[in-house]
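FAQ: What does the model actually see?

It sees only this:
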Amino acid sequence: MPKIQQVKPGSLAEELELQPGDEILKINGQTIVDIVDLQFALATEDMELEVRKADGEVWILEVEKDYDEGLGVEWEHPTVDRVRLCHNKCVFCFVDQIPKGMRKTLNVRDDDYRLSFLHGNFVTLTNVKDEELERIARLKMSPLNISVHTTNPELRVKMLGNRRSGEILRQIAFLAEHGIEMHTQIVLCPGWNDGPELDRTIQDLYPFYPAVRTLSVVPVGLTKHRRGLPELRPCTSDEARQVIDQVDRWQGRLQPLLGASFVHAADEFYVLADRDVPPAHRYDEFAQTENGVGVIRTFLDEWEDAWQRAPRRVKGHSRSVVVVTGVSAAKVIQRSLDQLRGIEGLRVRVHPVVNDFYGHYVTVAGLLTGRDIVAQLQGTVADVDTVLLPDIMLRDDDDVFLDDYTVEQLCRELNKPVTVVPATGMGLLYGVLGYTQALPPRRRYEATLRANDPLSASM
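And it is asked to produce this:
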């Protein structure tokens, strides 16, 4: 049964005097099994709630609400029942490479098709039974994000360590037949599913378009914490160029056939290969930016539109900023910031932070820890007014890094103001110029040490 963990202030639940520990037994006479049942049951204007209070008393509540209005609660479990855990032993599993002592949630191996539908998580479908596929089809749970990795049944069983892994094409065919849209991905492991195997996977999946809407190819992520795990290595620069060329050839073939590029290489390949990312029209609908596909192109196009409208000089006498990022994004950000050199009174530099915690193969900003940032910035920011961080370094719901380091701690240890900005072209520009009031407040952090900001006015 759905059990309430927290009631949000000002919500419908608060108005109904619901409290943490209360359980929703039925909505309009329907027993609620999981979050999907709950979402569908709440999509109504007139509702009868049967609630078991924490003390055991049962309430019947008649409710009138807007059709799309939720209760305004957080549930004890995100899926209401229990999250479906992963039953695979993937050779490339990132969770296996997380050291001890990290936040417990980082070690949760979820593989839940409901979280894919609701939140965009990638799932393998290896723990989905046929009756659950039928439920997905019946309830039109679309789109889903599916980790395919390879369509070669024997190879997929070997890579995922699950004997049910070889059924993926049958499962995709069923979902496609019933109108379920899918976004798919390949985690590319050199010597495993690259080269001819990559061609085979693309060849097998594109006939399902437009049900299979996109296919992303992302490089395997390897940390230094791989003791006892299968032997894997990262992609070399030459292999990255080969992947890009391979994807380009398929796009050239599929564009006239499908009217879409269909398959996309992740931005990391272009960084590793030292090649420019494709133009925007090659990314179709930018459907997999959360998976690192098209993020650089989006950033560059937004930056190009914004930087030319920057002022000729900063407000006040001067402004000095250090921009913190990962190694992979440093060149792109530096080239962009070079276009601001003509602004009088502005000094800005990029500080790429090497990932000592996970290992130097991990180069993306989103996997940096607070401790690494402090260790590598201390003694280098004495002459700056503020330290700029992209919000992708932090948890979505608060200002905490992967190692539970807080932005407040960062401020104290660097003895400098820290400003968190959206990881976009506009976010970077506004942050550098000091126009923080123009940024989305949810992801803006105004550090307490920031006494007097001469550029607090919005553009």
